[in-house]
Amino acid sequence: MRVVAFVACLAILGAVLCPEASLAQPSATSEYRSVPQARGHHARTPAVAAITPVPTPAINLEPTPIPPTFYSVSQLGDHLHAVRWELAIVGAAILTVGIKDWDWGNTSGFQTIEEGWFAKNTRHGGMDKIGHSFSTYVIADLLTDRIRANAADPTGAPITAALVAFSIMGLVETLDGFTGRHRFSREDIVANGVGALFSIVRNSVPGLREKLDWRIMYTPASFERPGVTGENGILPPYERQRYIMALKGSGFEPLKNTPLRYVELHAGFDARGFEEKERELGYPIERSFYVGVGLNLNEVLFGTGPNPNFAKYRDTLPGWAVRKTFEYVQVPYTSVYQENRFSTIRRVGTTLQD
Fold first, then answer.
1. Which Pfam families does the record associate with it (predicted)?
2. The pTM is what?
């Protein structure tokens, strides 16, 4: 699995949010004029009290503004310029990982592979497809934030971010096609598109971002290699991953001032027994759906409730980094689940039994 999203996270965390520009406030002035004094009167009367003002038509020296379109090529250029450093860092990081771990440079003829989706005879039980969707979503979501912070006109930021993330992941997949090890998969391209589309929807529908997170939870198994996946890898393996959709109580107005703002409803999926080490140990092949409840750590740490927390630091760079991490990562043991396994197959030697 190439969870490029984690590389993007590390890259974006190094960027500094731009301060907001202040708006100049025009100062009002009062004019007075002298009125000829009548005999016996020694007063200086404001002109506005003595003379009925005659309205004069205002002269507009500014050009008539043209209403902006929802999205245009000029906006795309502005958005790309706004995240040029982030894109440069992400590109360098991906290139480094590709050469180190994904056999880029060991060029062969372009090859494709039919990997399937979530069937029991697939290589990873569908976890790789969810991983591609999730990676594209995280890159797009982070770039959306950066464009909105830095672009002159952030209108359509989710579209630009999704296009860029989809292009990055598509380029990764294309380069895989020349390695002979991973090969090009059309299913992965479709999965990337799903992640990009989810990012657009989540960042465009009002209030949805506050209500819904997509996260990964990783709990290492005792038999896994220390650290991360691959012989010399840097990314987490599939064996103990779980992908979770979290519906947050804090995103609903009636619940914001109740204890339910700390509660989330979860729905998740994982697959076990598909990896080589699991096969060697005789683990059963099984895929599972989960439903449960979890603790909203962002609300606990940065919420505006009566309990003391770190709310005053939420808009600092460290606070932003922590909040974004908890949007994408479910900390183990902060939730409870009811599991529903399906298509469980047990291995006997090198054969499979239902």
1. DUF2279 (PF10043)
2. 0.73
